[in-house]
Sequence to fold (158 residues):
Amino acid sequence: MIRYVCSRICNSDDVQKLQEDLNTLQEWAHTWQMKFNIQKCKVMRVGDSDSGLKRESEYSMVKRTFVVKTPEVMLNLYKTLVRPLLEYCISAWSPHCQKDKKLLEKVQHRFTRMITSLELLQYEARLQKLGLWTLEECRNQADLIEVLKMAHVFLLYH
Fold:
């Protein structure tokens, strides 16, 4: 299933291709009698300096490219680009060594420090302002959810 549509728009042919992709997605939803939740749909525009961006390598896209580092923009970037990588298969593997936990947490710590209006706050205060949890708390929540799923299945069949 397609979860997102992403396209680089340089000319009218690119616009047409993106529209075809969106139409295909709409047809798929119609076939399966599903509706899109518009509140969950986001549009992210990456462009020239008009939109507050500079062209640089993808490696440094967030840290060096984004001039506007408001909490809203950075939180969307974090939830889209970074957090999925940190939480991938978290219920299947969970770091047990303290050094591994700290290494993962450091990623979120450094990312939240890039937000201009929050850079002087302590890590926990930044998380609270952004409505985020520590990665340890996320792992604990994922573990609890898995235990509840197992208990539910156990109760269904016994």
About this structure: Residues 45 and 51 are 8 Å apart (CA to CA). The two ends are 34 Å apart (CA to CA). Residues 54-157 form one domain. The helical segments are 12-31, 61-65, 71-87, 98-113, 123-130, 135-157.
